[in-house]
Amino acid sequence: MTIVITGATGFLGLQLLPHLVGGGRRIVALTRRGRPPVEERLTRCLRAQGVPEHAVRAVADRVHGVPVDLNRADLGLAPWQFSQLAAEADEFWHLAGHVGLNAPAAAVTRTNVAGTAHLLNLAAAAGPGARVHHVSTAFVAGGRGSGTVHETQLNGDHGFENAYERSKFEAEQHIRRWAAERRAKVVVFRPSILVSDRPSAVGTPSNPLAELARAFGLLTALLPGMPPGMPPGTPPGASVDPSGRRTGDPTGGPSAATPLVRIDGREGAHLNLLPVDAAARLMHELAGRLDPVPGTPSTCHITHYQETSVQTVFEAVGALHGLRIRLTPGPITDATDLERFAARATRAFAPYANHRRTYLRTTLREHRLDGDGIASIDRAYLVRGMQRIPADLGADFGLAAAATTRSSAGSASPTGTFVAPASRLSLALARPGA
Prior knowledge:
CATH class of the domain at 2-192 and 274-302: Alpha Beta
Helix content: 25-40%
Radius of gyration: 22 Å
Structural class: alpha/beta
Region (Disordered): 225-260
Number of helices: 13
Pfam families: NAD_binding_4
CATH topology of the domain at 2-192 and 274-302: Rossmann fold
Distance between the termini: 47 Å
Protein name: SDR family oxidoreductase
Largest sheet: 7 strands, parallel
InterPro entries: FAR_NAD-bd, NAD(P)-bd_dom_sf, NAD(P)-dependent_oxidoreduct
Oligomer: single chain
Strand order of the largest sheet: 3-2-1-4-5-7-14
Domain Thioester reductase (TE): 5-199
CATH architecture of the domain at 2-192 and 274-302: 3-Layer(aba) Sandwich
């Protein structure tokens, strides 16, 4: 039989595929139309991640790409193609999604809610007993800033920080209704923020915190007097090593001359960060162990047993760019130009600088996977994974070419920033859709 998967070439999908291929089954990757063949993209991305060549070849040989349109109820397939694929499939993995934190609600909902419903149309046409594995997010907890979130909880009482969270919440609601109506077997995975300590090659997916680092990279690139290729505040002869410490600098850290950036945030704020390879392994392991009750989805938090302080995240960003970034209870009424620009450039991330909630890991504990070989995350880990910083930051962030006139077109970064520079330190942020 066949496994059908969406999002195979994404940040998580690239880690999950080798596990699925190891089972010896045929895999069909549903991909967006107009892209290069999935086999070509998988080969390039897996090699860039350092996957052994024999594993790369195994994935390329076993995975077959089928171009689809998740915006259509029939996935854009001819009736015979739809029926044939449904007849062959006995397991579905839905990883694809729109992860833009500041993206327009309509676009996020179209992909994350309607796209999920359309994939479930295919699963409904499959034979009895076909199982669905849906990758949601721990952030369906929405605006709840503290307390403990249970796996059984799914309510919008606290509102949502952005359209992305709401869309994933609505997708889970739809899946619950669909499973009840169809008496289907469904597993819902709720991963936290997935990260990696491996620098991302250009053209391959990167973790969201690497995108946060890019936003600060843009700001420091515009600082007057910055030495080419070296973050500000770095003494002559010093450099930044992969752990985030400066070599050639006896302090190993920011100097007094290093620019200070205060970020509005709550003391003790923390986030749950999980290595993406661990997430893929845990999901695959649980998929083989769980036997969900027909009509009642099994929901699992795929999270780290340790929380990571938001201050640690910003320290890693600062280590990359020669900045002292400090969480400060707001409002910050005497903000510098750099601090105002930083706040605007990272506005999509801002709500999370106040979160202190935790997640119960009930399912992982029941299966003795609670601390199973999961790497600890510290500043050095984060610095290593944030190091994909393109040389041409302007082009990478969709910056307008004009220096004095505001661009009429905006481009969204994964951190939700729409930017058009008017000078080295004057950023005119274009509104989404402008």
